[in-house]
Write a structure and sequence with these properties.
Strands 1-2-3-4-5-6-8 form a 7-stranded parallel sheet, covered by helices on one side. It has a 3-stranded mixed sheet with strand order 11-10-12. The chain has a two-stranded antiparallel ribbon with strand order 7-9. Helices cover about 40% and strands about 20% of the residues. It folds into 2 domains: about 260 residues, TIM Barrel; about 60 residues, no CATH class. Strand 2, helix 3 and strand 3 form a beta-alpha-beta unit. By secondary structure, it is α/β, with parallel strands linked by helices. The chain is globular and about 75 Å long.
């Protein structure tokens, strides 16, 4: 039996990071502006545990929103200790956290291991030093490589996040970053298109006309080339597109850039569009039936049924059917004539 996996997110915004990356206003991006106290964290964990429907499950607590290992050591331990009773009683199996590549050391990793941390995610963002410099990241690609090696050597799962469309970025650089993430042994990743958030350096540069974010079309086109690289390498893609906080959804915090609450669906729609487009070159028939795996059905049909509408230029009827014998992102099809009853 496959266990259902849950991650309980605990957001600690702007707690540790002294850097001001050009894209970052963490409070506005995450939608979390208050630092939770011990009671709030315990309640968050309890509420999530009570809401989970699957009894056969694995659960981890994730500390997100800031550079966790940049917090003073005693504060790190305090947060980690809050989770320990849940680990001891078996309700939580592990802890994951996100941090910066230059906030990793042997000493830090030894502490994390002691408290049951299993996964360390690094905000790599890019493996191109020019992009990192122009984004005021404050670390180099080499530091990401060194931190990644240390994390894996200490037996942690490694996560490496990437961001596309930062100042100085290109499709070629983004593809290079993806390949480097794979070669560094990451078990998981997240792909975020860079957005212009209010009160950031990129906001100022956007207003001045010195920075232009990717268009939605560009962001989808880049990501549809990056995503298969990770999938083929067995790297789990935890997220495609920034989590839709209230400020982003309302537009109050978003100035410009390729934000869409269903960004992943847009990307997978285009991947399926490319796969299905050759069907319009098939011999003309009245009915096209496409057979796809269950988990791919909505993406194959496409966002706003784009991929179902596309073959209608040639076929009178297009139907998508689930076929449990088909695996991964494959499909079968048949072309037939409609039965006209009189």
């Amino acid at each position: 039996m496959t266990l259902k996996h849950y991650t309980i997110p605990v957001f600690i915004p702007e707690l540790a990071c002294p850097f001001q990356c050009v894209f970052c206003n963490q409070q506005k991006i995450s939608g979390h502006q208050n630092i939770p106290d011990e009671q709030e964290i315990r309640q968050t964990i309890t509420d999530h545990l009570n809401s989970f429907k699957h009894k056969e499950r694995t659960v981890e607590v994730g500390f997100f929103g800031g550079s966790f290992t940049g917090i003073p050591s005693d504060e790190q331990k305090h947060y980690l200790e809050i989770v320990q009773p849940f680990i001891k009683n078996g309700e939580v199996q592990a802890i994951r956290l996100s941090t910066r590549p230059d906030y990793i050391s042997e000493e830090i990793l030894n502490v994390l291991k002691k408290y049951g941390v299993s996964t360390v995610e690094l905000g790599a963002q890019s493996m191109d030093d020019d992009v990192l410099k122009k984004s005021f990241r404050g670390h180099t690609a080499r530091q990401t490589e060194q931190a990644s090696d240390m994390i894996r050597q200490h037996g942690f799962e490694l996560g490496l996040q990437m961001m596309i469309g930062l100042p100085g970025d290109t499709l070629e650089k983004a593809l290079y970053t993806a390949r480097k993430i794979i070669s560094l042994g990451a078990s998981n990743t997240r792909i975020y298109p860079a957005l212009v958030i209010k009160d950031t350096a990129m906001h100022k540069w956007f207003d001045e006309g010195t920075y232009t974010p990717l268009s939605m079309e560009e962001a989808v086109r880049w990501t549809k080339q990056i995503l298969p690289l990770f999938e083929d390498a067995g790297v789990t893609v935890l997220r495609v597109g920034l989590h839709p906080s209230e400020g982003l959804l309302s537009g109050d915090e978003l100035v410009a850039g390729p934000f869409h609450p269903s960004f992943k669906e847009l990307v997978l729609t285009e991947i399926w569009y490319d796969k299905l487009k050759p069907l319009t070159d098939e011999k003309k028939g009245e009915k096209l039936t496409v057979y796809v795996p269950k988990k791919e059905l909505s993406y194959a049909v496409g966002y706003e049924a784009k991929n179902k509408k596309m073959p209608l230029e040639k076929f009178r009827e297009v139907t998508f059917i689930i076929d449990s014998s088909i695996q991964e992102r494959n499909f079968k099809f048949s072309i037939s004539q409609l039965n006209n009853c009189k």
